[in-house]
User: Fold these one by one.
Assistant:
Number 1:
Amino acid sequence: MYVKYSTVTLDECEFTGNTLVLGYAAGLFVDDASDVTVIRTVFRDNVVNSGYGGAIVCNIGAVLELYGVGFSNNEVSEPLKVDSSVHNAFSYFCYTTACPEGEEPFLYDGCVPCTAGSFSDSTSTSPCTPCPEGTYSSATGAIECTGTCPPETPWSPEGTVVPRNCGEPQCAANKYWAESDQQCTSCPPHLETSRAGSMSIAGCFSIRASFFASSMRSERISAFNADESNYKAIADVSFPDGLTFISPTMLIVGNYDEILAFDAEGTPQGVFASLRNTGKAFGGLIYLPDLHLVGVAEWQVNIEVFFFDVHDFDGTPLGLGDVVARTSLPGFNTNPRYLSRGENPDELLATNINYADFGTVVVRFCIPTEATCNPAERNMVLVDGGSDIVGVEVLLEKGTFLVSNRLPSNPGNGRVWECPLDITTTMNIYSCALFAYQPEGDGWEWDPYQIHADDEKGVVYVGDHDYMKIHAFFFDGTYLGRVEEMEGNLGAPTDFTIYEGAFPPLSTLELPDSGVFEAGTDITAPLTLKNHRNVPIGDEYPARPGIYSIEATGLIPGTNYSSTITGSIEYKDDAPSSAALTASLNIPFVGDWTISLTGGNSNPQSFFGSPTTITVFPAPTDPASCTTTSPTVITAGSDFTATVSTFDAFLNPTSHAADTFSFALDDGRPPSSVVRAGTSASVVYSDTMTRAGSYELEVIFHDEEISVSPLNFDVLAAAPSAAASTASAGTTTSIESAVDTALQLQAFLHDEFGNEVFDAPGVVVNIQGLDPLDPAAVVEHVLEGPRYSHTVTVLQDLEATLTISFSLDGAPIGEPLEISVSPPPPPEDPFSANNVIFLAGVFFFGGLGIYYVYAHLTKTANDTSLKTKAKEVRANLFMIAVNVVDVLTDFLNWHITIARACAGLVNHLYLGFACASVVGMLIAVSVSVLQLLHLKSDADEIKTSEELEAEFIPLKARYKKVEAEAEAGGAQVQPVAGDAAAAAEDEDPVNALEKKLLARIERIHTDKTEVFQMQRDQKRTIAGVIQIIVEDTPITFINVLYMVYGCDLGVGAGEPLDTVEDENNCPPVQERVGSVFIFTTMLTVALATKKVVSFRGLGAMKRNRERLEREIKGMEEEAGGWLAELVRKRTGGEEPPAAETRAPESASAEAELRLAAGAEAELRLAADAAASLRAENEGLRRRNVGLAEEGGALRARLEEAEGRERRMIEEKEAAEAGRAELQRQADEEIRVLMAEMEAG
């Protein structure tokens, strides 16, 4: 009995009379990885003629337990001691000997040398290892295979003994020749399959692919999902049959009487073709890309194959009228099921169900659109005789075709047959070679249905209908396995096809090799889209970035919360489809992150190598993200410790070793630099603080202050120390015991570091000597914070020595203090008679001077000359000074007299009136300021015009000079008698008119000046009256009360303006001081009287001003007429009478006037000419503007005309080209006709 890889229990068995010619055990052989228990069993008469044991042999790795086992007459070649509880101790063997290198265990013989072609390089209980491919060993007992195949024949099978077995690489299936290692290497897991003899990893492939399957039973379309190794439903279809891709983006599926269209994601794209209401039904489909035709098996009515042109499909369903070709199939009453390519491009194969005798056939027929195929020669039944033939597929590489035979009479035992293509007569299916049968082994039933072949892979895929699987085979029939591990939503596959576009499980994401990234940086990785053959997709297959997604999953630092970060897929227009996509991610958190890249919306699948793990490390430390931990209050003498927790801009803890922080206290010391210790996530600053106060600690990182800086903290004083504290009883050692003399005592507590302490208990002061009756008596006072002070009132006229001592919790504070106390000397009179007389003189004469200056300026301000501006300025400035000094005098008077003598109502009244005087002062000052500001405009009102003043004032001066000279000349010519003297007295009328006009202008100017002064005096008078009301009257009233009552003010019962609180508030010395202000009161009365008198004259002043204004108006009109006449005379309107005896000087003056008049006329003519020129220039400008507008319109019309001309030329050229073409066509037709005529 042989047991291997099993667990067996034998109970009450008998092994008798077994003879083994050559082997291990005649009775029971327990081989590798077995666990056998034998109970109550007998082994007798078991013989091994040439072997290693008798009744039982146990191999390495096996476990054997014997309970109550008997042995009798069993032959063994050498005895072996075993447990005594077992009968016949020499009847079984288990070897466990560890053999040295170069040897291997050999049953109970112990160890034997490794045979040639194997080796053992260590002490082991395992058998020797065969020499690897490409090596050999001719010796026995080898510890290594020293022989290596030469480069020209680099390969040898495992266990090679001699070099003659070396040759060309002949790697087995699922391996490839690794040139770098010079040996056959297994294909990688994701490309697990290869054909035998593959010379590179390019020969490795995966049997997985982008399968799309239809299931009529499940009424759906499903797609293979490599992540779960099953199928996902992507669309529901009520009666799905054949399906195929007709473009990189369109899948069509037969659905009884219509063909539906979907994209590769299963999204409906409409109806490709419809035969509704015709009774026809679609079966298998085949797409012929070179002919852009879709072949459709119609199996319901006409029993024929239709062909549609895919170029005819524009989104509108194709119908029966759109069929470009149709054909019936050879055979009797056959109906087509599935279609396959033929041996030649112009023919197809089809499986047919024959309803007449319920047999099935495989037929070959020509594609009706292809003239190269002769139906009479090629159309025929290839195979007959099977039952329920379904799928058919041609293997062009082998010159055969495969047929699936379901065998409905024997369910689960279907077969796939391989038949030759070069059949000339119909062949029975059972004459074909068996390609596949129960591929998963005996007992594994299957139901082969549709078949598809991948020529490039050399793989055949067979759908297992009832058992819902898809199997893969090499072209030689070698079974490769199932495509999927579980069916998922596959259902019973009716048909399936493979999408040649991107297959995510073999497409790659090219992350940088390090796999380590900085937080917050963009991680970009190009994608390489590959199809199921591990080849980059062609440009005919769109990259479609919308169906791909990338995301990273990881834990948020410091938490157990998982976070998912979604990236983006970017598309590049200028790249091939296979390299057009780039994935981008930005992960702000540190740690290990799982990157998942999937493709597909309805059926997402991971890319090759996805998911993968990357590591994100912190970004540079960010000052704005750092946090601190520090106390806000410490005690002097203790350490202040600040811990800076460092983070990057994304709040990840950082531990960069190069980080250096600078800590600067605002105590004048230089900053301290602290370098991170190791890989700690924090930086610690510590400093011993001894000085109490409030501090700021600036934390600087790379010249930038962190966000929580500065750190504010307080250092409180430590416990007070008597030795460091001080006490004070003032700044003098002697005082006078006057009335209410107070002695201020204070202790100043400090800790050992010199910091002031404000809240300590136990501070006591003792005072000795305060009691004149008992000078030794001690008075104790407890001092409390924060000032620790006490005020001691010394008795009046006390004379003693005070001893003062301070203590803190019984410990003395400094040395005791001694203060000498003595009565005060008699008071001195601060106001002597000389001081009083001096002050009185200053105020009296000062006030008198102010009055006379004011009166003088008021009088001189009424000067009627034209140049009064300077005087008016001085008068206003002086009035401002007088008003300000007046108010200051009132406040000084209050401070020295009333404030000191009267504490009651009079004091408050005086202060209130003094404040009101400020209002009056401000009004008066504002009047003066306004008069100063408006002085220029007011002064201009007293002038007729700048021109008159400029002309007639010099003229007046010149006339005075002429008159003086004329008088002197007349005195010289007095001797001349007769008419000459009389003629000399005649005067030029122009001169007379000028003199009269000049006199009138002077009169107008004088009157205007007087009106100007009246207006300003009125304003000043009104401001003065306001001052009388709000200032002078109340202040004078209070001063009079003070002068009448003096220091008794407020004592009498009949005084309603004061209270009895003023009694004894005015010492005798104050009476003399108050008398000084009698003069001030008198001055105030005098000024007020002057203001009242001025106010009484306001009415008369107003009437005079109105009279003058009327006169001025009349004189101005009269002067205007004279001026017009004078101008007329000067310009020649009237010649003055001749004056034969005129003095030469008068003639000269007249000439000058005439020249001036001529110059004026010339100026006026020049002005008229200039005005005329300006008008002419404006006209020219307007004309230029008009011309410019007309030019623009002309240019527009010119451009329009040029455009019409160009169009006419182009039309002419086109017409000429048309005529030439017509002529050429006519010539060609004539030539053809001539040729036909000649041929006829």
Note: The radius of gyration is 66 Å.
Number 2:
Amino acid sequence: MARLQSDLSAHFNVLEQDILQSLRGSIEYERLVLQKGPVGDGNQALVEPYFRRLHLSADAAQRLGYSEEVVAHNGWVMDWPATEDFAAPSWRMVYLRRHLCVWTDTVKLRYGESEVDAPFLWQHMTDYAVGMAKIFHAIRLDNAHSTPLHVSRHVLARVREVNPHCWVFAELFTGNFETDLLYQRTLGINALIREAMQCDSPADLGHKLQSPIWNGHPVGALSPIPTLDRVPPAQTSQQKHLSKCPSRTLLAAPARDAVPLLPRHCPALLFDCTHDNQTPAQKRHPRDALPNAAVVAASCASAGSVRGYDELFPTNPSVVSERRGYPKAPEVEVLKLGGFGSPAAAPAQTQTQPQIEKEKEFTITWHSKASKVVARGAWDGWGANLNFIKNQDGLWSAVLKVETSRLPLQYKFIVDDQWTVNEQLPLAQDEHGNRNNVLSAAGIPSAPPPSGSTSMSGPDALINKLPGILTVKQVLNKLHWQLGKDGYTEIHVQFLADDTLAIERRSPDNSHSVWFVIRSAFWRDRMGDGLDAKVLELDGMVSHLHIAATLFVGDQHENGFRKDNNFVTGLECFLHIYGSVQEVAHVWTEGGNSKLRLTRFPPGSVMVLSTDATKAHQRHSAVLQLLDAQEICRPLEAIALHQLNYLLYSCESEERDRSNGQRGAYVVPGSGPLAYCGLMGVCAALDEARRSFTEDQLLHAPIAENLRQGDWLMKCLVDRLADMPGLENVKAWLQRAANILSDCPRTLAPFYFDLLVPGLCAAASNYFLESSSEFIAIASYQSDLIRDLALATVQFWGATKSAPLHWDRAQTEGWHKLPSLCAGLPHFSAGFMRNWGRDTFISLRGCLLVTGRFQEARDTLLVYANVIRHGLCPNLLDAANRPRYNARDATWFFMQAIQDYVAESPEGEEFLAQPVNLKWPVKDWDGELAELEPKNIADLMHLIFSAHAKGISFREWGAGRGPEAGKGIDDDMSERGFDVNVRLDEQTGLIYGGSEHNCGTWMDKMGSSAKAGNKGKPATPRDGAAVEIIGLLKSSLRWVCELDKKIFKYEGVKTASGQYLEYKEWNQRLQDNFERFFWIDPDERGAVSSTSIYRDTVGASRQWQDAQLRPNFCIAMAVAPELFAPERANAALGVVATNLIGPLGICTLDPSDKEYHGDYHNDNDSGDIAIAHGWNYHQGPEWVWPLGFFLEAWHKMQHDTESANPRHAMRWLVGHRSMLRKAPWRSLPELTNSKGQHCDHSCPAQAWSLGTLLAALRVMNE
């Protein structure tokens, strides 16, 4: 008991101290901060009461049996979760601990959990809100978090039933962004109430102005539209003000009506001061009412105010107790703004802009009498005299030629040894206030006119007849409306001094800016006129003064204020409106821009200026001209596919190969090297920044910082084009773009770069798509996936010096005229490893035929055709120098590619008559077949069939590692692995080949770890009859059987036994035996791990591997569907769909298989034989390219069902859509690790991954 009493006593002491601390804080706030006055002076209670007695009406008292009701006041609690009811039972005991900041004019309502808990209260509040919604366009939720969220949702649902367009404004100060977001999403809040008077310093004001909280969009903000979603504008006059949406300049017009949704703060309704908060007179100084109002007018948010703010009410009248009326509003004349009708402020027109001269010749004249005239000027630093000659008409003249980029230049005459100016020529002021003549590009005054000139228009208001700040506020309100209407969506704040801000509102559509310069009056002890402010440099020159004014409210005005008994009135004041900029600032011109130093600008001052932005307008017009559809597309006309590859892509190793090692990928500090040296490399980086950063952070992304700091990246993009013949016109376009960037303010460099370079990239991409096949040209506008796949194929068809398609021809024709199809980037980008036969012909249909690049496909087929040897297509081409013939499947993918080319190309079957001249005659490698020396493609096909029917057996050249073998071709292969063997089973028609010592199919990983014991051992030899080879063989046999005998004259082949085997018979034997040998029936369960599938191989030396579940039978099913019984085929495809398909690729082995290892690490140096040195390359990792064949097989086998609808296949392509848009390589990888995890040792861009998917999508959309 004693311990319990001790604990209770300690707890009571804690509560007591907590209560006393809360009371102390409340008293200090009420009496010292709010200065409510001493107790007894109308403020009886030392602290505000938490409860109130309500006297009930007689009817209520009679009904309830008592006459008084005690109710609790509402309020707010510091750090209290807004979604919880602080009045509910809780250990925090808010009322007892005095934690509630009470509102004594409100009552805390208990709504309960649902309407049944308090039906009258729910209905009463709902009726009130609905009544307001019927009258007004909008309603405000005051202290929205004080009403339970479920109640507000119910009430607003009824409100929207009677007024669907009712706007909901809410006051939220939960102190937590996530909680604010919860309220916004749950209630559908249209805007949040913000208040400038809640800022605690001018710096706080400036930061919030340009933050998303107050709808700020930074000057020079990059477009949210990704590169590939842009189209060049056809006609500017047809463009809408897309910039009314945040930072969506119409120069980066979207290809579709929809534009990306960006994460944004809830829009703001920004008040200068709200009805229940302190006024400038209470919180700062009455003079701050003017600059504070200007800040709100300068903001990008919707603006609001409270009655009495403009009349300088010293305090806001109570909405509960105030009974006096407002004075009658004064009559106000209609105000017309200036500064928005000049050509510089108008949107750029479509007429062709003249080319800017590099040099301009000026004739300068002196009109008055003189004995000697010379001039000195800024053209040479005011050094040497420019001598004048007297003409016959008595005028003195001199000719001067200067670079236009240096204009304007100031100068002065020295007439008879006296420094002077010519009043008849353009004049300007320098930074010291001296008047000088000036040379400008147009030969007319380009600098602000001298003091006293009336050429600068404005102000919009000069005579003040209204109380308070109403005259200036009228201009500010009109400006705020005009800026919003005309798309001035961007804002930037410069801090000229700790109390002085320069706020720029800019239109991204025409570069016109309006500047608000304000000096606040936050601090009563700093009302002196002295000001040490930075010089303000404008982009352009001052053309119009909207308003300049200072609000003076002295002690006599505040101390002399007397409360009127009938009306609510404001403080007396003096509002001084200036007639010119020169009254408040010194203005001069430098480099075509106005500079401004404030001279007479005391606290409580504002000045609003417009610039004519002549140079900016010219720059903008030049950008518009470059981005014009015809102008940007003209340089792209007739460029070849390999030139497009160089323009858009070119990875690091390709670039070094093409530039003899002189140039690589551009490195962005803080980010790293770009994936590509071409346009797509930087565009991918920009698009990634768009996704990764909020709009206000985007300009500080590493890529944007680098662009702002210098033109190095642009120079790199321009200079590299000199190395690829045929891109001269594109280089010229890009050089013009570079010239624009070099002349623009550095703050705007990322903005213009993001317009120009992605604009050219989008145009080049669009050129490729529109010049592709009809399928691509149409489907790419309907499907982003097809568009992105098609465009990514350009990554692989390129020319390199070290790996032309044919080495000997490249030496005479030039390396750039013999491009080849790269297997993958960056691992296979250059050298002898660039071009692989298997990869090439798996990729060829999607990468070249589907896209309509028939000439490139034809060139590839013919080069490979001429290096057929041993009846095999090379696995590694080596530029037709010394190919490697170690693949059993590459030949059949080659044969399938010939069939596909004939079916797709305009040339058709005529291609089979195309001449062939083998580099290595048949007699050199098989004397028995010498009589079959081919003369054309048809002959070559027959030779391939014949070689396989007879049987193939040879040892690879260069095999081994002895001195007699020369350079070894495979450092890890065992000696027996270099022996290549293929044979035909004459009874079944199946082709067998390989051994346990080599790997002749695409699953070709050779072990290399002596430590783990897998060196020289293939992980997946797949010897025997591989299912995909049988399918490809069947497809080729079926095709030649259907060919006209005039095209393909051969009837059959001679087998190893000397028997003659007709093609039709061979075809039939495969048809008869395939299901018997490959189908694994459910009855075989127990003997094999998986049933209702097709065997991967038949007759493998590792017998258990025959029945392993792998995706290879999908290839056979796609090319030779006639081999498969439909019911069995669909069952097998279902097993693949269930067990093998991952987020991007297909598992190369069933995850339930004992040999499965799904994560590939080529650098694994462990002693585990299964994974050391990546031995599990094809033992589980998920390869992308087989998915294309799976989709094609699925479509063909399900052709009579709803499942064949292409949209059903899209479930397997969700990850591919994202990868193509977000990956820096803008491509699909070779493979992923288990469950779609990234694999560091995979090529991030692989040709066959794209090619098979694109081919499948074309089939599914036929």
Note: DSSP finds 36 helices and 44 strands in the chain.
